[in-house]
UniProtKB/TrEMBL annotation, chain A:
Pfam families: Tll0287-like. Residues 1-22 form the signal peptide. It comes from the Bacteria. Keywords: Signal. Residues 46-198 form the Tll0287-like domain. The keyword Signal applies. InterPro entries: Tll0287-like_dom (IPR021796). The keyword Signal applies. It comes from Litoribrevibacter albus. This is Tll0287-like domain-containing protein.
Automatic annotation (TrEMBL), chain B:
This is nitrite reductase (cytochrome; ammonia-forming). One of its GO terms (cellular component) is outer membrane-bounded periplasmic space. Belongs to the cytochrome c-552 family. Gene3D superfamilies: Cytochrome C3, Flavocytochrome C3, Chain A, Hydroxylamine Oxidoreductase, Chain A, domain 1. Transmembrane segments: none annotated. It is an enzyme of class 1 (oxidoreductase). Its cofactor is heme c. Its EC number is 1.7.2.2. Residues 42-133 form the Tetrahaem cytochrome domain. It comes from the Bacteria. InterPro entries: Cyt_c552 (IPR003321), Multihaem_cyt_sf (IPR036280), Tetrahaem_cytochrome (IPR012286). Its main location: other.
């Protein structure tokens, strides 16, 4: 009886091993490393790179070229939907991207937050968000990484500095009647991009 | 337990299971399965279970898809302030424990008559508190306001804040309560200024199949000469039988557009066969015939309360609209009338002036409707009909509830009537931008729509309420200007 059981287990193991080997060979790599997937930090760093590049390009090639300081073909405005030729402000474009992504996948989420938000709903809420935003403000050029459990899911949470790159960023925030801070300067950290990946 | 008790229990169980199984699967009348009356928004289709319960199993996501199938565009047009995508971020996980705002039914649960409030809301009205409790600290003007007052008329709306957001209030503050006539006439789409369907927008194959008469039928029409003469003979016969109808039609926009009898009364099928003409004749054309040309009007009609029952395949009578759940009252004289395009437009005459007011008042007997004829708005309409005012100055029931909208169709700007009255009715702040501000300033519009007594009198007087939102917005604006 025992022998029969052992024999059965041996067959099961052999089958499992051959299926696993077949799976690895199908993927074409055969390396154990590949089955682990990408590291969360590398994943969020890469996502941030794409986000930052797109945002910079939108600001540089669309808003600056076509906006009031360029040919004046579009009107970047907070209430862009209500204005003829209205265009999203760069921060709104970023949020619109985050919302569109949320409709497509739940594999990651991202948001733009600040300790001095124009909309108080965009202030840090979780302990990791608060710690991360304080860290990137106190340590220019550095990112913050942490883990947190929200609801019943644990997340890898990365916070990246959002720096004032042009006069348009600082003047808009400094003049806005809902802004809690009115002395932003170019090069200063105005907030952070928070990227979450469920673990 | 005794044997007979077991037998009795099995029989009862089988009977109950069989009865409900039959009701669920085979019987068309599902009323026995209704777990509670539907809200005023859905009661007309409460027995068309599958319109919301599109799949027997599937839970919340299935219901959510049903909600968005009907309401998604409306929310998009309203620049929905609280779309689902705002709540899917994990940072809101704690908030979703209180109200799961990703799903419509979290706030609008159906079949809960006892706890249903205005707008089909089934939550306590202070729901804003859960996310916005710090508003009093940020806005001194809001410090002592109760949270069940946030969504009162003229302040905030959970979904549609297009006429209520702060910059809009500031930008549109001031001005006389009523605008100058020249400005009004310039602002508003003139009645009948443009046809809602331009001939060039109708597909050639549709023209041929619908027998739109000689003015529109091109020589290359698929209609043969033989069939054409048979059709003309049939029309002549019908016109001779019904001289009154013929007179009505000759004075109608259909005649002017070259739309003859067959456009509505003949199906496109088998019309080249002389012998099958009689079979192809439709005695009483319905929405299907109207919508083959008036697609957008029919779409709006079927999406609104007048047509939503028809959209589910029910032949609706006025009495079926006048359920106590609708919150409206209707004339008993019309209870048995069927509801369709002709209910308001009348067959053959298609008089839009009648459709704009008298048709409404022939059914609607609530206080607001019955006060229309003595209202200042009615006076304007009468002056237009007498010729002492420009047509664009008139205000009818349709002006506010089924407004004319300008839009581009195939690159051409046309004026069409939005036949989904719900798009412009609930909450009533929806009317501010699309209708009220054509003639009135923002302050008057907000105050008037917040005054229920004034609404019931059909705006016979000035608002007895004042909503302070514009005052607060201006104060904050001035304070900011002073700092600079």
């Amino acid at each position: 009886m025992m022998k029969k059981l052992m024999k059965g287990k041996a067959i099961k193991f052999a089958l499992t091993a051959s299926v696993a080997a077949a799976a690895l060979s199908i993927t074409g790599c055969g390396e154990t490393e590949a089955s682990k997937g990408i590291e969360p930090k590398l994943y969020t760093d890469s996502l941030f790179a794409v986000m930052k590049a797109d945002r910079t390009n939108y600001t540089k090639y669309i808003i600056k070229r076509l906006g009031p300081n360029g040919v004046g073909a579009i009107k970047p405005d907070e209430h862009w939907q209500d204005i003829e030729n209205g265009a999203l402000l760069p921060a709104q474009m970023f949020r619109a991207g985050a919302e569109a992504v949320a409709e497509m996948t739940d594999k990651f989420t991202y948001s733009l937050q600040s300790n001095w938000p124009i909309n108080s709903q965009n202030a840090p809420k979780t302990a990791v968000e608060k710690e991360g935003l304080d860290f990137i403000a106190a340590n220019p050029g550095e990112n913050f990484y942490g883990e947190e459990t929200l609801g019943d899911t644990t997340y890898f949470t990365a916070v990246y500095p959002d720096v004032a790159v042009s006069e348009a960023c600082t003047s808009c925030h400094n003049k806005h009647k809902d802004s809690p801070k009115t002395d932003f300067k170019i090069g200063e950290v105005m907030g952070g991009v928070v990227i979450r990946v469920p673990l | 337990m005794k044997k007979w008790l077991w037998i009795f229990w099995v029989l009862i169980t089988l009977s109950v299971t069989g009865f409900y199984g039959y009701k669920m699967t085979l019987d068309e009348d599902k009323s026995e399965l209704l777990i509670g009356d539907a809200t005023h928004g859905h009661f007309q289709i409460e027995l068309a279970c599958e319109s919301c319960h599109t799949e027997p199993f599937g839970g919340q996501e299935v219901i959510q898809t049903a909600c968005t199938n009907c309401h998604q565009q409306e929310l998009k047009d309203a620049h929905d302030s609280h779309p689902k995508k705002k709540f899917t971020d994990p940072r809101n996980a704690d908030l979703l424990q209180v109200i799961d705002a990703r799903y419509c039914v979290s706030c609008h649960t159906e079949h809960q008559e006892e706890q249903t409030q205005d707008m089909g809301l089934t939550l306590p009205t202070d729901y804003c508190f859960h996310c916005h409790q710090s508003v009093g600290e940020e806005r001194p003007s809001h410090k002592d306001l109760p949270f069940d007052s946030c969504a009162s008329s003229g302040c905030h709306n959970y979904h549609d804040n297009k006429a209520l957001y702060e910059s809009f209030l500031v930008a549109n503050s001031g001005g006389e309560w009523i605008k100058h006539l020249d400005e009004i006439n310039a602002n508003r789409p003139a009645p009948n200024a443009a046809a809602s369907i331009a001939p060039e927008l109708i597909a050639p194959e549709l023209i041929a199949s619908k027998f739109i008469a000689s003015k529109l039928i091109a020589s290359e029409s698929a209609v043969t000469e033989k069939a054409s003469s048979a059709i003309n003979a049939l029309f002549a016969e019908k016109m001779a039988e019904h001289p009154d109808i013929n007179n009505h039609w000759q004075a109608s926009a259909h005649e002017q557009a070259g739309m003859s009898c067959g456009g509505c009364h003949l199906t496109g099928a088998s019309t080249n066969e002389q012998t099958s003409l009689a079979a192809a004749w439709i005695e009483k054309p319905g929405v299907e015939q109207c919508q083959s040309c008036h697609q957008k009007e029919a779409k709006g009609f079927l999406e609104g309360k007048h047509g939503m029952k028809l959209a589910q395949g029910y032949i609706a009578k006025i009495s079926e609209m006048s359920s106590e759940h609708s919150g409206l009252s209707f004339s008993e004289l019309v209870q048995d009338n069927q509801h369709g395009c002709n209910s308001c437009h009348g067959a053959h005459s298609f008089d839009t002036k009648y459709a704009a007011t008298e048709a409404c008042l022939s059914c609607h007997t609530d206080e607001h409707s019955q006060n229309f004829n003595t209202s200042p708005h009615a006076l304007l309409k009468d002056n237009v009909l007498e010729g002492s005012l420009a047509a664009a100055s008139q205000v009818t029931c349709a002006t506010c509830h089924l407004p004319r909208v300008k839009e581009k169709q195939a690159g051409t700007e046309v004026v069409r009537v939005e036949h989904n009255q719900n798009l412009n009715l609930r909450p009533n702040e929806k009317m501010i931008r699309s209708v009220c501000m054509d003639c009135h300033n923002l302050e008057f519009s907000i105050d008037a729509l917040a005054d229920e007594t004034l609404i019931q009198s059909n705006f016979n007087g000035k608002p007895g309420k004042h909503i302070e939102s514009i005052d607060w917005a201006l104060k904050r604006d001035q304070k900011k200007a002073k700092k600079e």
